[in-house]
Amino acid sequence: MPHASRRSLLLSWLAMWCITSHPALGLDSPAFERALGTPDVWKMPDFIRLWVRDPADANAPVSRAALGDEVEIFGIRPDAIAARFLPTAEVHSVTVVVLDAGNFFGFGNSNVQGESFEAARVRFDNEFALRKQRLQDGLRKMGMQPQGEVMLGERGGLRLRTQLWMGAGGIARVLSKEKQLLQVDFFRNEAEARSLLARSAGASATPGARPSALGNMTPRPASDAQPESRIPGVPMLPQGNRGYCGVAILAMIGHHFGLTCSVEELAVVNGFTYGAESNPDIREMFGQIAREAGIKAQRSPRFDIHLMKRTIDSGMPVVVFRRWSQERDYLHSAYSARIARGEKAELPVAGSEDRKSWPGKDAPAHASIINGYRDDRREVIFTESWGPQARNRRMRYEELEGTSYYVVYFSK
């Protein structure tokens, strides 16, 4: 098809969305489905405006932006639709979470209260089979056929088993894991579908090359010119009402290093079944993610302030596993919000009275990303996987020393 005719057709699809889109009804499904298999559409401003991007993620090697409207795909109302963006504002790929057990069951099975767990499992399995058939039928209708297995993440040991679909209708990758996840990703080309490493369209495709954005990962002073060191925004991937704290932090670190693996995919790798962990220790996977990205990971059972500062100063984040309590979380949240508003505030001195309220060894485990520090106040700056409001929170060095039990320091 001549370039002018093809562009005219693509513009007509975009026009169809504008005409038929309605806040209550969502986008036009057939047009959106066709666009998923036509990467030329992804370059157009009208397509890019469909996605809700977090400005704090603008310079991230890979960031995820949710679709700003609702749309059915192949007659399915998916759990989520998101685009992966590169720092160049290119859409690298589009991911459709067709069915996720974490979302289906909810944190602590909170979404299936009122029915037995066995009944909920049967309902999930039936829905999984139905959606899988509709997905396969839909991909074939688009003009794609299965092309065999693609094993992702072999360099780092992640070994994520997927299936490649290709044809006149585009390029897609399907992850089908019974009892946990059905997901399809659409790509610009076959090479990107076969890799977890993201690159801009003009970047070198040398096997094993690190993302070029890693060279620019350097800390910078905070915008308010306070004497603190802070890494530019680590990509936010909210865990939602799911028991995905650890894998969400893992995916955020992966995106920061230029990997495209989603929270849901990493839950599969970590052995989640029906939305719950079967392998409760995710710590080894941080080393796997680092190897996949060509990064080094040093693991330690203790928090070292000096090593943390050197790591941040080199432009790399730190992951800390710590004990958590609602009381201390409220204190950190309130204090961090006041600092963000430019108000004068101080955390309690880490004396004997304050230490009494720190969470002990029996408190729930939690993972956070340290993305900065302020030395004159002896504060770490950390980010949670709870959404944009959970960026750049603060606690004293002493509290993190006293409540952490495992730390991962990254280096180039």
From TrEMBL:
Cross-referenced InterPro entries: Peptidase_C39-like
Lineage: superkingdom: Bacteria
Domain Peptidase C39-like: start-end pairs: 234-385
Keyword Magnesium: no
Signal peptide feature range: 1-26
Keyword set, alphabetical order: Signal
Region annotated Disordered, chain positions: 199-235
The keyword Signal is annotated on this UniProt entry: yes
Protein name: Peptidase C39-like domain-containing protein
Organism listed in the record: Roseimicrobium gellanilyticum
